[in-house]
Design brief:
The complex is a heterodimer of chains A (151) and B (690). With 151 residues, chain A is of the alpha+beta class. Chain A is built from two helices and seven strands. In chain A, strands 2-4-5-7-6 form a five-stranded mixed β-barrel. In chain B, strands 5, 6, 7, 8, 9 and 10 form a six-stranded antiparallel beta sheet that branches. In chain B, strands 4-13-12-11 form a four-stranded antiparallel beta sheet, with no helix packed on it. In chain B, strands 1-2 form a two-stranded antiparallel ribbon. In chain B, helix 13 packs antiparallel against helix 14. Chain B is globular and about 75 Å long. Classes of the chains: A alpha+beta (151), B alpha+beta (690).
């Protein structure tokens, strides 16, 4: 019984230590997901949190200015100006119209400073109706629209 | 042809359902014939799913773009091995592939044991058939790979369409590990179904004795080995293809593959408590159950789109099926446990804190803590959205904060645990076993510190790695010395002999050593460097001891892709060492660009060069170079891990040495009457020592 007690004490120490570490790691890296429309209604305290925002890149807004990349994300009619300051090259999938996830913080003037940018190509892989170049027109008049999606 | 494949799949489901229902009826009515028939049905599923898989592969190789799955994941110019591997490139195909591997495992589990354990196997057959039924239902009704492309014209009539060219395989998947990583990982995931089936069967049938735990342990080792290979290959793939210079990013899908691996590892350790001391029976059964459920959860996470990940398939409703199945499995497990909980009563108690038992307990405790932390971090976006309505994710700092200390503590236990005696270890034995490894480890730590190792975790890791290596080396040396003195053989032969006499123990040490190698590789990570620079022909970039001189940019083309390539000459101390060719490939069928990393790997460091594209303002090519120390040790550790696991699964030689001469002599004398037969048989057996 004595050994069992010692084991329980040891376990408790380990578990408490790990829980503390987990808490510290959690506060350092927690990131909120927000939509662009939500940003305007956030309380001021919530505006300083690290967050992820997603949207589509508005056509023709990507501009590269001395180590920074500026672009505009849009979602349901709302827009957000983003400046990417990270050092990693932008993903290949990042281009006009791409579905993009930016991670970073908001500046007080409503500008978003992104440290990370992930982009999903708006391509066939997501079953977006988009006829491939080789579709035989005569055979499948409206094939793209009924193209089986990945259920 | 597609009808043929679909039909095979439907029939497979029917047969699986029969195996399930007939199996239960056989157990209830105690009719042997019914049970036999159910088991044969379980094996027949394998043949039927094989037919379905063969049909899909036939479509891939004949470029049949009237099939939606083929059109989405292949194109004519795709190399043959990618056409083969495109089977598991998407949702439907990979689920079919899953079913096939499961049916393969089920076939072998049933076939190997067809004349053994008559009390146990009927239950095993039922559990396997149940799991197969679930996956075949998905294959048939939720994600059918045999869909054709059809469209309705203006009059509403439906036509079957054929595309002249497919969309091509996702460029990120066009890397040779595509052919091997998913099968390995899936062999791990599906493989855990077999130990689950045996554990649940033993519990349901109240199978007497500890035999089932040996069977479960063996199958777990097989699945665990595949899972390890799969995870490491995945890490290597990410490293070589994604071009961000790392191999592990705590991506939800990476985490999902790690979870059953962690609980599987915990089980492989705690199972010894049950075998040797009759303890932790409840715990072990639940570890096996949990491992299986985590496999299902991993599949669910990958496929449902509940967590965002680089691996995730498109959003879909398939998640509901998985959640329902998980709920059913949990209920069945709990019901089986509750009904038969007295069957799992422990025989012994913990005697001392300084004992093998307690090291296993701590091992399991921290492994489970790691598992919980990873699971919690992975699911946190979902949980937080449920609870508070706002979706919050946690990043790598969270996972590293918790798991790095756990990993280091486990490394300590890896050194300490095997040298502690069962029940209680004397102070004397402690000193004898640990004196030299501890001294050696501290010397190594001090030397590393003197040479500028300042990262705390890396320093602790290195010290522990030396400690564990020394304890393992001492174990081999001590055992081998005894054999060498007694049998008069040299020490190397004695090590081989020692290992073959207790493959499980010494194979286990080899796996521990593999973990040491992997840890050393990971400990190099704090010393990574990287430089990014715009470069034109004639310009150079310096990273660590290397200077990269840009020689040329050109375009390479084949039917599948068009590639921009940079030619970089690498100098070290003014001497030209090699050429590196990082590429950016534009895949014609999918119209997507992907990077090809140029990698020069040596045991000490990797030089990892990415052609990041052209800067839009200056139109100059951008080269991103990374210097990652010790990464190669991780992959090498993986190879050692496989060898060690393989070794641990071999039968011990001692039995063969004692039994074979007697058996062989009677047999041999019957044939030839030669008196030398026993000696020949003996020397033949020990021929391949080391």
């Amino acid at each position: 019984m004595k050994a069992r007690g010692k084991f329980l004490v040891g376990s408790a120490i380990i578990v408490v230590t790990l829980a503390l570490l987990a808490y510290v790691g959690f506060t350092q890296s927690k990131t909120y997901y927000h939509t662009i429309s939500e940003l305007s209604s956030l309380r001021s305290s919530a505006l300083h949190q690290r967050m992820r925002v997603s949207g589509n890149v508005r056509n023709g807004t990507i501009e590269h200015v001395s180590n920074r990349v500026n672009f505009v994300l849009e979602e349901q009619g709302k827009t957000l100006k983003v400046t990417y300051i990270g050092s990693d090259p932008l993903p290949d999938t990042f281009k006009d119209g791409a579905q993009t996830l930016v991670e970073g913080r908001l500046t007080p003037d409503g500008h978003f400073v992104a440290e990370q940018v992930q982009a999903k190509c708006a391509s066939k892989y997501e079953a977006v109706p988009n006829p491939p170049p080789g579709t035989q027109p005569g055979q499948a008049p409206s094939a793209p629209s009924t193209y089986p999606s990945k259920s | 042809m597609d009808i043929f494949g679909s039909f095979a799949l439907v029939l497979a489901l029917v047969v699986a359902v029969y195996a399930f229902v007939a199996g239960i009826s056989g157990i209830v009515t105690r009719r042997t014939l019914l049970t036999k028939s159910a088991q044969h049905a379980g094996m027949a599923v394998f043949a039927l799913v094989t037919l379905a898989v063969a049909t899909i592969e036939y479509f891939f190789f004949t470029d049949n773009f009237s099939m939606a799955y083929i059109a989405e994941h292949s194109n004519r110019a795709l190399p043959g091995f990618y056409k083969f591997a495109a089977l598991w490139a998407g949702q439907e195909g990979s689920l079919l592939w899953w079913s096939w591997l499961l049916s393969t495992y089920a076939f072998f589990a049933l076939f190997v044991n067809r004349r053994k354990h008559p009390e146990l196997m009927p239950y095993v057959g039922v559990v396997l058939a149940g799991v197969q039924t679930f996956f075949l239902t998905l294959n048939n009704f939720v994600a059918n790979p045999f869909q054709v492309i059809a469209g309705a014209d203006a009059t509403g009539a439906v036509h079957i369409a054929t595309l002249s060219e497919g969309h091509g395989l996702n460029p990120l998947l066009q890397y040779y590990e595509m052919v091997i990583h998913p099968p390995m990982l899936y062999l791990g995931y599906t493989g855990f179904t077999v130990p689950f089936a045996f554990a649940l069967a033993a519990l349901l049938g109240r199978y007497p004795g500890e035999k089932w735990i040996h069977i479960t342990r063996r199958w777990t080792m097989i699945a665990w080995c595949f899972q390890s290979i799969g995870i490491l290959l995945g890490a290597h793939w990410a490293y070589a293809v994604l071009g961000w210079g790392g191999y592990w990013g705590w991506d939800p899908v990476e985490n999902a593959s790690l979870l059953p691996w962690i609980t599987g590892t915990a089980f492989l350790h705690s199972v010894m408590m049950q075998e040797k001391r009759g303890m932790m029976k409840v715990w072990n059964v639940w570890l096996v159950f949990t491992t299986f459920m985590l496999c299902i959860l991993g599949t669910f996470l990958t496929r449902s789109g509940v967590v965002s990940s680089v691996h995730a398939f498109a959003q879909s409703s398939i998640g509901n099926w998985f959640v329902s199945f998980l709920a059913i499995v949990l209920i069945v497990c709990f019901w089986a446990y509750w009904r038969n909980r007295d069957y799992l009563r422990s025989d012994n108690q913990l005697d001392s804190l300084v004992s093998r038992e307690s090291s296993f307990l701590f091992n399991n405790l921290v492994l489970l803590a790691a598992c919980f932390a990873v699971l919690w971090g992975t699911l946190f976006p979902v949980l937080s959205e449920w609870v508070s309505g706002s979706k919050i994710s946690v990043g790598p700092p969270f996972f590293n904060k918790v798991n790095v200390p756990i990993a280091l503590f486990l490394m300590l236990l890896t050194g300490v645990g095997p040298l502690l005696a069962w029940r209680k270890t004397s102070t004397d034995a402690l000193r004898r076993n640990f004196q030299w490894p501890v001294i050696g480890a501290f010397v190594a730590g001090a030397v590393a510190f003197a040479f500028g190792f300042r990262d705390l975790y890396a320093l602790i890791c290195l010290t522990l790695c030396v400690f564990v290596t020394l304890t393992i080396a001492f174990e081999f040396y001590r055992g081998a010395r005894v054999i060498s003195q007694r049998d008069g053989v040299n020490l190397v032969t004695a090590v081989g002999e020692l290992t073959m006499r207790n493959t499980r123990r010494y194979g286990g040490y080899v796996v521990h050593f593999a973990m040491v190698l992997i840890f050393i590789g990971v400990a190099g990570q704090p010393f990574n460097k990287d430089v990014q620079k715009e470069m034109e022909v004639g310009q150079s970039l310096t990273i660590g001891p290397y200077t990269l001189l840009c020689q040329n940019f050109d375009v390479v083309e084949n039917g599948n892709y068009q590639s921009q390539r940079a030619s970089l000459e690498v100098f070290r101390n003014g001497r030209s060492e090699m050429m590196l060719y990082p590429e950016r490939r534009f895949f014609l069928a999918s119209q997507v660009t992907s990077t090809m990393v140029a990698l020069q790997s040596s045991p000490l460091r990797d030089l990892y060069v990415v052609y990041a594209g052209r800067s839009p303002e200056t139109n100059k090519p951008v080269i991103h170079a990374y210097l990652n120390p010790l990464v190669k040790w991780i992959w090498f550790g993986g190879i050692v891990l496989v060898l060690g696991t393989g070794l641990a699964m071999l039968p011990n030689r001692r039995a063969a040495l004692v039994l074979r001469p007697a058996v062989d002599s009677t047999w041999d004398e019957g044939i030839s009457g030669s008196g030398a037969a026993p000696i020949r048989a003996l020397s033949h057996r020990s021929g391949g020592d080391d």
